[in-house]
Amino acid sequence: MKAIYEEGLATGNASFQTGAPSWAEWDNAHLAHSRMVALDGDTVIGWAALTPVSGRCVYAGVAEVSVYIASGSRGQGVGKALLRALISESEANGIWTLQAGIFPENTASICLHEGAGFRQIGRRERIGRMGDRWRDTVLLERRSQVVGVD
Hints:
By secondary structure, the protein is α+β, with helices and mostly antiparallel strands. It is built from 4 helices and 6 strands; from the N terminus they run ααβββαβαββ. The N and C termini lie far apart (37 Å). The model has no long low-confidence stretch (mean pLDDT 94).
């Protein structure tokens, strides 16, 4: 998982992060449920997980999506399968809204999320710096049709 994350970071279009966290840091930052891996035999070729967007109880059903695919497995439906499984698992655990902040240059990820029912709800302009460059993110959201509909 760490190597796949680092491959994504190396593209410059996956995250504002500059390095992979330790396992303990990663584990503490992500929800204990809704952690997915894709395997090719015994080899992990992708993973997906959720991060809570806030510690406030009113946002307990809102989470941010992370999906990372090994470079040699991109474009083969791995991301689609992981994201669908993640959505299903998140709903089974009471998540009513999933969100993703994606660099606009990462068109493959935007298309992946839109194909899974996410919609663009805005663009956060110059939200953060990477080195000497300001970056925008596209904010996408998916509302569950089964959780939080009452």
